[in-house]
Amino acid sequence: MLKDITFGQYFDTKSIVHSLDPRIKILLLILQIVFIFITKNIYALLLAFLFVLLSVIFTKVPIKIYLKNFKAILPIIIFTALINLFYTNEGKELFGFWKLTLTTGGIYKAFYFALRIVLLIAISSVLTYTTTPNDLTDAIERLLSPLKILGLKNAVHTLAMMMTIALRFIPTLVEETQKIMNAQKARGADFENGRLKEKINALIPILIPLLISSVRRAYELAEAMECRCYSVNGDRQRMKILKCSAKDLFAFLFCLIFCLGIAILNYLF
Amino acid sequence: MQPILEVKNLTHTYDESTPFSFDAVNDVSFSVFQGEIIGIIGHTGSGKSTLVQHLNGLIKPSSGKILYNGTDIWEKPKEIKKIRSEIGLVFQYPEYQLFEETVYKDIAFGPKNMGLDGEELDKRIRDICSLLEINNEYLDKSPFDLSGGEKRRIAIAGVMAMNPKVIIFDEPIAGLDPIGRKSVIKMIEDYRKRYNATVIIISHNMEDMAQLADKLLVMNKGKLIKFDTVANVFGDDQTLKSIGLNVPIVTKVFSNLKEKGFPVSKKIFTIEDAVSYLLELKERGEHFA
Amino acid sequence: MIKDSIIEVKNVTFEYSNSEKTKTVIENFSLNIVRGSFTVILGHNGSGKSTLAKLLNGLYKPDSGDVLVDGINTKDEKYELEVKRRVGMVFQNPDNQLLASVVEEDVAFGPENLGLSPQEIRNRVDSSLKAVDMYDFRKNAPHHLSGGQKQRIAIAGIIAMEPECIVLDEPTAMLDPKGRKEIIKTIEKLNKEKNITVILITHFMEEAQNADRVIVMNDGAVYADDTPINVFSDAQMLKNVGLDVPQTTELLLSLKNSGFNVDTKNISIEETADTILKAFHSEGI
Questions:
Q1: What average pLDDT does chain A have?
Q2: Which residues constitute the domain of residue A63?
Q3: Is B20 an interface residue toward C (CB < 8 Å)?
Q4: Does A236 touch chain C (CB under 8 A)?
């Protein structure tokens, strides 16, 4: 149940996409999202589709895993498609039923918007599947580093540290929740049956121990960090050096060609 | 005689039908009789904890059965709560499950879930506290103001207050200092004596196991390697060594003596045994050097 | 300054206070730790040993008296970080000391805080992981490791700062016997090979066998301070402060009480067996 949370999953297939600089990957993702959003016609969108498909293939992560992703948001895709299907009154009317009419324009729009959502999710997955959460955090911190000049140095750094620690402790807390639930079940607690109010009350024996242990963990972690010479105002160095290489330049050009293509197709049709 | 608890071909597979699937418990069968103290030993990850969570129905077996007084505990899944009150389970570091405002209320949580209330509930709590020597002055305190060892005692009392016939402990003394350890062991012994309860303990402390247990169950990689009397398990130190488990220090001393040509014909695992055995040898005055 | 001592504790008193009461945890406490030595501090919970540990690297500041690390007073704010670098600290719960999701990034945390160059950080991370025998796990996530492995990562994170001294506060309390052995082996190796001063706080007797010195604490004061063998053979003293008597000592004492002529000052299994043999030989059997 709790183990099914797969946010930020990473698949180490050691592809060329994995070896790109995470900062570049984030910037390219933003660029792609913008261009997928500004596609004005199906031709531009199909070009975007081609680009996303190539990116997905380059990651060497099995397509099956990407498809799994869509299962969860299938209702949203269907909902978007249906709305567009029946609320568009363009093109030839195919048939009418009660207050709904199905038009060729509707089919076109339903397909167009559904595909756009699929592409957005797929291209975001390309980033999370090929970049470790740590690299992501690291890259975000460095991308935000220009803010440091504005006197926000500690804010940027603290934010990144919080994300690092959160990522580290998610599995620990999931495990702990499971353990506390089982311990209370052994004392006769019932989490499945009863009315809503009873169910909410049944959560107290889980939430309080969880809260207390998290506070204790936080306190101990803070002491341990202090013992390792951490200070918010300190001048921290980083072990990892992020360097852009020829690969990143290539990825950038590759991406740029497609963006240019989309812009041209938008203009032509 | 019918065993109180009978485990038949129990298997538990984690992540079934995925490439990561593995058997945490693999075809384990054994019987426990009323009033026995069973020790379970094995490495971390040998399947001990998964095994004991099956015994009170917290985990459902992938295959195999658990019989309590001859009846399958999963025969009526709706009544699993009743099974959990008859077969108590004290988790590792149970102090982390305390949540109530007062010690009294926390101990009452289990019995209340069983449907006890009013005077009956109050009597139950007073009884268990007097048996376990938990002073009345503690009952109104917040459990979070107590020391680590005291918290552990309260958490254990919370399970004992349900009056289980079988009580299982997953490493009850882990992380305690010698004083805390002794007081927890005393609680277990007192409870067992009063209610003639059956006790199952997971522990790494071989000396305590030698003192406490009647039988030992040895787990390795999900399999039951040995289930026999303490003497026979510690006597077969080759098996234990082969899976990297310890024997009591006294047993180690006697193995060493044997290697040096000393005539050790008996299995020795407590200090009392050792002293009486050596005295006997001395009195016989046999020449062996 | 006494020659060759890395840590000097001078007449330290430390009080712990909350809204209701003030409790003196450590009172007029003095101690010298010799550079390169291996000291074990024993004591039951609440004897003040954890508080003492936190006083040694300036995490706690004494209410009166001074703690000097290499002659630097831990109260001196200018050297706050330097004191913590010189005296590293490892805690009981390995989970609550690791803060990155990748082993090597966690070990890098200390050196990164010291502001070293990326290359130097890399070197230190690699050599620290090798020193605790965890180099092969450098890319792993901590939550997939065993307790003993996580604790070795925590130790690597400390030695990457190249401390003079490591204080370990019950590092094995939450581990199984295998994990405990790994940790003790690692600590002994660091002491011998890297000449790092070690202060190990524990209540497991067997972990103190190879120490240079054993200090028994009770009620915030030193109750005994001697070699392991002298401390362990004093069964009465250990019982007085609520500590375990090692099984071998207990065995030899029981034999002595039953009329055997044995020397009770032995702790290893080998020595104990030899002592029993000798007793039988001397009886002419």
A1: 85
A2: 7-131+243-268
A3: no
A4: yes
